[in-house]
Design goal:
CATH class of the largest domain: Mainly Beta
Oligomer: single chain
CATH architecture of the largest domain: Roll
Distance between the termini: 54 Å
Number of helices: 0
CATH topology of the largest domain: SH3 type barrels
Structural class: mainly beta
Shape: flat
Order of helices and strands: EEEEEEEEEEEEEEEEE
């Protein structure tokens, strides 16, 4: 059984019967009193983030997980179909396991986190950046290129983001999927 000294970012734990992933942690040794570990834990099923403090040496139950690369193929009804890039096996994933699915587009390589003992998919992580094309936006006004003003735009995945005024329909852009915002224009 592991203890709090084994806590690291990305580690999955069985916390009160629920699977949680450590997204932040900090070992604290105050001048007075015992040491403790302050963590932010993300519930894998619900996506809810909670803060939890463990006393130093507290026993924790670490779950063995594996990160595997998959390619998104298509959406089949409510399920999303992914293909393993090494052995070409396909797996159907329910939408509640995919965070930021509005940025998911065909042929994108994602990381699927699996519970190693049960071979059960837990979370689908998109790459931090995707290259996409603007399918609709209002035209910019000539001369409005020096300001930081943003306008709404729809990209080819169907998501709506805010882009600078100089971006037009058909422009290729890089989108940050974590923040859900425009990053830069891609030069052809």
């Amino acid at each position: 059984m592991a203890n709090t000294s084994d806590i690291k970012k990305g580690v999955c734990l069985n916390q009160d019967g629920k699977l949680v992933q450590v997204i932040e942690f900090q070992h604290v040794k105050p001048g007075k009193g015992p040491a403790f570990v302050r963590t932010k834990l993300k519930n894998i099923e619900t996506g809810r983030v909670v803060e939890k403090t463990f006393s130093a040496g507290h026993k924790i139950d670490i779950i063995r997980i594996e990160n595997r690369e998959y390619q998104f193929l298509y959406k089949d009804g409510e399920q999303y179909v992914f293909m393993n890039t090494s052995n070409y096996e396909q797996v159907n994933i329910s939408p509640n396991l995919i965070d930021k699915k509005e940025f998911l587009k065909e042929e994108v390589i994602v990381t699927i986190i699996f519970h190693a003992e049960e071979e059960q998919p837990l979370v689908v992580e998109l790459p931090q950046f995707i290259n996409t094309e603007v399918t609709y936006t209002e035209p910019g006004i000539k001369g409005d290129t020096a300001t930081n003003t943003m306008k709404p735009a729809t990209i080819d995945t169907g998501a709506e983001i805010r882009v600078p005024l100089f971006i037009g329909i058909g422009d290729k852009i890089k989108v940050d999927t974590i923040k859900g915002q425009y990053s830069e224009r891609i030069k052809d």
